[in-house]
Amino acid sequence: MELASIDTIRYVCDKYGFAFSKDLGQNFLTDPRIPEAIAQGAGVEGKCVLEVGPGIGTLTASLASRAKAVCALELDKSLFPVLDETLAPYPNAAYVSGDVMKTDLAALADEKFGAGEPVCAVSNLPYCVTTPAILRILGTGRFESVTVMIQKEAAKKLTCSPGDSQWCLFSALATYRADIKKLFDVSKGCFYPQPKVDSTVLGMTCKKVDPPLADAFERVATALFAQRRKTVKNTISRMPGLSGTEAGALLSSAGIDPSRRGETLSVDEIARLAGLMVQTIQKDPA
Q1: Cystine design at 64: which of 93, 146, 239, 264 (Cβ 3.0–4.6 Å)?
Q2: How confident is the model over 164-203, as pLDDT tens digits?
Q3: pLDDT of residue 284
């Protein structure tokens, strides 16, 4: 059965009484070249894969044909009977019920594949949860890579640089945790129902980050982008535990011009500043 086809999607809808949910952002692929390209680009050969949002199993099948094992996390229980049929030819593929925003993804990966087993995350993410889902997946620190298909405009935020109009808090937080590259674009005509915008597939190689420093990075980055047009010194001096004098000293130590605006700082500069801030607060906890 060719899963990436309108005929199959209509067959599934008729046989199982499936109805698309706008709230869940369900759009299924109709071009068989796309799931194959995603699976190939994800580099999952012989590896374990956690997939988020399998739908009718179109991408799942392509992943299972290459991977050691695949576990798919699906929120819509009405798709379970469909997945029972479409994944039957793949004994190394399974699915579980769950919401990416509520499930302990690291614990799930350990349970299904074994603690310490390298795992790749792959997903055709619903547009409505793109930002929080990506940050949650990256934030687990459990995956060696993350490959996602998201709306094209959101992808631009993850492949731009400081100073670009698209650079934002999402850009900084994701880039801190992964090296991100664009793999290819996907036309809106490759889906049913057809969305209003095109998509992009991104490949992310996850970095190992220290949890306390990651927390500090997020606090600093959030403060900088909340007041992105204020000077860095103005923003940092307002953060808990720091005085204006200490903020100036921190920026000097980090080699950052205090008159710059927060939105212009690179990920490395924010990380350097966050690390120094942690050291300063630890020395003077009062």
Answers
A1: 93
A2: 999 999 999 999 999 999 999 999 999 999 999 999 999 9
A3: 58
Q: Which of 52 and 263 is assigned the larger pLDDT?
A: 52
Evaluate if pTM is beyond 0.90. yes
pLDDT above 70 as % of the chain: 98
With a CB cutoff of 8 Å and minimum separation 6, the contacts of 158 are 134, 170, 171, 174, 175, 180, 202
pLDDT, average across residues 81-96: 98
Whole-angstrom Cα distance, residue 218 to residue 220?
6
Residue from 66, 70, 64, 35 nearest 49 by CA: 70
* Range in 92-106, 115-129, 200-214, 272-286 the model is least confident about: 272-286
Per the listing, tokens 């945790």 go with 177
Q: How far is CA 242 from the centre of its chain?
A: 32
Contact status, residue 176 vs residue 269, Cβ threshold 8 Å: no
